[in-house]
Design brief:
The protein is an alpha/beta fold. Helices cover 40% and strands 16% of the residues. α8 links the parallel β7 and β8.
Length: 316
């Protein structure tokens, strides 16, 4: 299974803040890999799609919110690879469709809505059995692609599967936004022991993701799936930059994102990368990183979601 990707470039950020801190700052532009299936979304989908194809499934079913990058990417990838797709959406149907769901429908995805109480049961055997009975033999991908197939794909973000392989090992710290811990787990498994992954949860009270990360790492290493190394590199969570919770923004974050794009030519998505980039810049001012450190910031894509957030924000 292949998809036409543009190589993900590594771009240096010439920042006075970084220079003053004595730190070299770079960005891995996963957002430039493909117009629809980019960022960490492709890596989390890749081996799920391969398993579905190998097991002769013709329909993918997955979960997400109304502005979900995962729903957007799954709809596009399903269309590209000849799968029927079903998106189980959290909440009640609202018409007209927002840009994310409108795109998903254009890609052929069937949308199904669950109230929030039922949606919370999405990972239970009972609800998944109900969905199988309703829709027949479907290959279920968890919300956000958060399973061992997703972790496997994320080992390739800075691993041997990418043009950055080898060069990525020159960085002391790899920084990434964190929602389900899948990307963090994959990156930790692909780094040398001298490197460190730093993840910025975008959810309020995101410290629980430490347990999620440990669980993913333990289960992955206990599986038969390939891993670059026998043990993960060190990692940590920095939980102070969620801006109120998932998909929450304020004037400060919006202004930071706008100024960053104007200064460096890099657009940031408000849900994930903007919060991580803001956190890194703030920590640089605080002297969190050691002089001489070289940082690689992972741009995980998701720019499509900015339209919906800007629409909601401007309607306040």
């Amino acid at each position: 299974m292949s998809l036409i990707f543009f190589p993900a470039p590594i771009q240096k950020i010439n920042s006075e803040i970084a220079r003053h801190a004595g730190v070299d700052l770079y960005v891995l532009r996963l957002d430039l890999m493909h117009p629809w299936v980019n960022g960490n979304k492709w890596f989390k989908l890749k081996y799920n799609l391969l398993e579905a194809k190998e097991k002769h499934f013709t329909t993918l079913l997955t979960f997400g919110g109304a502005y979900s990058n995962h729903i957007y990417a799954t709809a596009a990838a399903g269309n590209l690879f000849g799968f029927r797709t079903i998106g189980v959406i959290r909440g009640e149907e609202t018409l007209r469709l927002n840009p994310t769901l409108s795109f998903a429908v254009q890609q052929g995805m069937q949308l199904v809505y669950l109230n929030r109480e039922m949606y919370r049961q999405r990972n239970t055997a009972a609800l998944q059995e109900y969905l199988q009975q309703r829709f027949g033999e479907v290959f279920i991908i968890p919300e956000g692609g958060s399973n061992l197939n997703g972790v496997r794909g994320c080992t390739e973000i800075v691993g041997d599967g990418m043009p950055t392989a080898g060069y990525a090992y020159a960085f002391d710290r790899i920084c990434v936004a964190c929602g389900t811990a899948t990307t963090l787990a994959g990156i930790a498994l692909s780094l040398h022991q001298g490197q460190r992954a730093i993840a910025f949860p975008v959810l309020k009270n995101g410290a629980f993701l430490a347990q999620e990360t440990e669980s993913l790492l333990t289960n992955y290493l206990a599986s038969d799936l390939p891993t670059p190394f026998n043990s993960p590199a060190s990692w940590e969570l920095v939980c102070d930059y969620h801006f109120g919770g998932y998909a929450k923004v304020n004037d400060e974050l919006l202004m930071f994102s706008q100024q960053f794009k104007e200064e460096h030519g890099i657009p940031l998505d408000y849900v994930y990368t903007a919060k991580m980039f803001y956190g890194v810049m703030d920590l640089l001012k605080q002297g969190f990183f050691s002089k001489g450190d070289s940082l690689l910031l992972i741009h995980t894509g998701g720019l499509q979601g900015n339209i919906g957030i800007e629409e909601r924000y401007l309607q306040r």
